[in-house]
Specification:
This protein has helices at about 50, 55-65; strands at about 25, 35-40, 40-45. The chain is an alpha+beta fold.
Length: about 110
Amino acid sequence: LNQYGTKPAGGVSHVPPGWNNWIGLVGNSKYYHYDLSINGEKESHGNDYEKDYFTNYINGKAQKFLSDQTSAKPFFMMLSTPACHAPFTPADPYVNNFADLKAPRGGQL
């Protein structure tokens, strides 16, 4: 969904057919200061760790969605975080955990 929500991709109001509950990150790989499409409505976020850090935000949304499900009706949930893509912005409580370490880089990297 790279670049979802941009004008060339249909804008924030575009919800792909078949989804009855949709949350899409507008643009790509952000943790703060981002916009979402919530079922076609734009929702803007800032830089407050408690409510805006994207990985935590979608984790909460996913847990709520799962807790609302019952065994009476099958469902599908796709959850994708930008955590494996740059920029690698750690959550505030962990920003200095590995400040003095560097990831190994071998020939395959």
